[in-house]
Amino acid sequence: MTKFDRHFRMNEADAAEYARQRLPQFANSGRLEAAEIGDGNINFIFRVRDPESGASVIIKHADADTRSGTRTLGFDRNRIEAEILKMEGDYAPGLVPLVYDYDPVMACLSMEDLSDHVILRYELMRHKIFPRLAEDISDFMAKTLVPTLDMVMDPVRKKEMVKRYTNPPLCAITEQLVYTEPYTNAPGRTKVFPPNASFAEAELFSDQKLHLEVAKLKYAFMNDAQALIHGDLHSGSLFVKENSTKVIDPEFAFFGPIGYDLGNVVGNFCFAWANASVTMKEGAEKARYLAWLEETIAATVDRFAAKFLTGFKASVTDPMGRCPGYAEWFLSTIMADTAGVAGLEMIRRTVGVAQVKDLTSIEDAESRAKAERMVVLAAKAYIMGREGYRQGRDFTRTFREAASIRA
Ligand code: SR1
Ligand code: MG
Q1: b/e for 253-292, b at 16 or more Cβ within 10 A?
Q2: pTM for the full model?
Q3: Which residue's CA is the nearest one to ligand 1's atom 4?
């Protein structure tokens, strides 16, 4: 019997003791250093390190309630994350952290420490350039999404997988935070920047045509089990260093629309564009940075599309999936979903309860209000016109237009 035979919420000292008992790389260690480094809303994240050998590990520890104490989610998200990370590591080697151990009793996922990487969102806010980003993210999505498509995977296995990775509590968060609250404006469930109060009322809360399109997208999220998606692919789920990208945090994974992943990437890059456009001084550096961001958005979409088609055609097993034109038709539906989801993500991170620092950190009130308006206008164009989006440049053109309307 050990103290880790029954779940309890660990503190730093517990995490050090846990690592020593559970993980072979620490079995003979002397003193271990442990620090809780989580800054999200949901889990507890410990880094445990042996100062002598330099060995270190990240332990992601779930409690039944969220870290913020606002919801009870149970523990299954921890299992889903462990299994999905291993699967993603098989499909897309080098693009996710290595999993060392999953412990269902303590709800602990022990994995590679990526301390030499930094969170992409904060680097984009510092206006840093990462030359490999579009290539790596498009690679990650194509390699992880294609294998679980209906026309690729054995249909019986696919349906077993849909059962195994149904993720009700985490999907419920998305259904509320992304697909509902930014439109119903229930008390306490939106956070509108005061200078934009009347703008949000007119453009979001009272726009019935917008609500209808969001309702259609919500239904697709709830029912369109296209592939095993990451489910939360924002720029806080991406770790980067100059020539490396790692995708983390797939606890929201489930079988859903592929456009939910690509749309999250596009939407979050648009926040970086909005931030840079109002915070950087006019000049060559700003022009270069915005051009790189636009190129990254466009290339992520276009490279994903090309890799998706190649990957699909190489791995399709269903005879009907081989019909000429099927892959291209399916891709066109992914592009429309991508535009819709990019818009939803941009709206919910601007007026919803889980906001992004790309916008909230803008100190000058007028600049922040302007950045938020351009984000919302582009987002609405994506949602309302989603059937017309086919290529990367379609996305960046809309954003530039929205930026100029309220410049
Ligand atoms: C209660 S969790 C808030 C948000 O953080 C996660 O990363 C998801 O995006 C979720 O919507
Ligand atoms: Mg997360």
Answers
A1: bbbbbbbbbbbbbbbbbbbbbbbbbbbeeeeeeeeebbeb
A2: 0.97
A3: 354
